[in-house]
Amino acid sequence: MTKAYVHGYDPRENVRLQDQATTLVELLHSDTVYPMGSRILEAGCGVGAQTMTLARNSPGALITSVDISEQSVAAAKQKVVAAGLENVQFQQGDIFRLPFRADSFDHIFVCFVLEHLKEPRTALLKLKEHLRPGGTITVIEGDHGSAYFYPDSDAAHTAIRCLVELQSLAGGNALIGRQLYPLLVSAGYGKVRVSPRMVYVDSSKPELVDGFTKKTFTAMIEGIRQSVIEAATVAARTNSWVDISTL
Amino acid sequence: MTKAYVHGYDPRENVRLQDQATTLVELLHSDTVYPMGSRILEAGCGVGAQTMTLARNSPGALITSVDISEQSVAAAKQKVVAAGLENVQFQQGDIFRLPFRADSFDHIFVCFVLEHLKEPRTALLKLKEHLRPGGTITVIEGDHGSAYFYPDSDAAHTAIRCLVELQSLAGGNALIGRQLYPLLVSAGYGKVRVSPRMVYVDSSKPELVDGFTKKTFTAMIEGIRQSVIEAATVAARTNSWVDISTL
């Protein structure tokens, strides 16, 4: 697995991921509750933003959270311990070579991970090896090409396109949300059911204006500013970059 | 009100609107039930595609359905009578000059209408005059700029952009969905709550592939083919039209 995580490992990014998780938790997996005693693998836990919700929602489940970044695993562990949650064990590990036997888990949870991988289908195939027969998987991914707004803004679309292209240069896919159904089917998962969730914000929802529009989405785009400028400097020579003059 | 209805009055369009209403009814207003005895105005009923659902869902409500097109009103009436529904009265009328007193209605229902008007805010202001104090309004509109798909298709985006521009040339706004909140607020409606609904289709939902993707959305775009070609011929002289060479 590549370590080219498009959002980087800046501490401010840690705060953003927590804001994102808090704002989106109702939308994304407020309904995720695992039965008593079930064995859950959270693949790509990052700094533990979603781990907290998983552990709180399913106190009787045994959650194993892994991430390729040692530093992120440490941050996630600290957070979970500080919250007094005791049903999570952490482990550093590469999704493509996890040290678990076949049939180790009843359920796998993957959130905002596939978008960063060069080979998301292979990741899904590998994960399936650790799932018991009849086990299930939840995959949550974004789709940055689905954003629209009023009034419209060419500058905003250009900025978003920069993120999409940067992620693509790093081997990822910021438009993977729309592709989940064929991806899961081609990786051999049965009974695939996609449930799209839209974040809608207007000024009657000040907590979402702040928590989502400003601190999650805009912050995400702002967070890649320097990387985009550097990538554009390189790409200018090959003339392959989008026009960032309006940024 | 202009009679420049972008989708035209072709009989096939009548069939498309019925397919659209049938496929979307669950999503759009399966939860719309009006109390016994309440007086409902359906403004812009067209050929009655939504009228049927309104009348069925609320057998005790008194529904008044108006449309500017005499021909559409006749088609709507025929449909409702054939279904044995007796709680609807029809009337030809212009939304901007309806022959009703103030306080005539408890609730107003508007579906896929504002997008065709040059002055949607004025329409909302005029409609409000017929609403009793404390009355409510439901406005349902589309947003054709919100469509995305996998695999992506430049030709499809161009075709959709043609509809958006055609509607704009006719004085309407195919992107009005995202604007409903500020529109309703600026027309003086209080406690505005927007509830966005997304139509998601993949191959596990053959009834939506057929009923929505093919018979509603694609049919809508196909339905304006001739109008776009004619408008492009005119616009070619002023160089103001999008490139339709990929169509």
Keywords:
homodimer; 247 residues; alpha/beta
How would you summarize this macromolecular structure in one to three sentences?
With 247 residues, chain A is an alpha/beta fold.
Characterise this structure.
- The structure is a homodimer of 247-residue chains.
- Mean pLDDT of chain A is 88; it is low at 239-247.
- Chain A is an alpha/beta fold and 247 residues long.
- In chain A, strand 2 (62-67), helix 3 (70-82) and strand 3 form a beta-alpha-beta unit.
- The two termini of chain A are 32 Å apart.
- The radius of gyration of chain A is 18 Å and the shape is globular.
- Chain A has helices spanning 11-29, 51-57, 70-82, 120-129, 154-169, 180-186, 206-223, 225-236, and strands spanning 39-43, 62-67, 88-92, 105-111, 131-140.
- In chain A, 41% of the residues lie in helices and 13% in strands.
- A five-stranded parallel beta sheet of chain A has the order 3-2-1-4-5, sandwiched between helices.
- In chain A, helix 1 (11-29) crosses helix 7.
- Chains A and B meet through loops of A and loops of B.
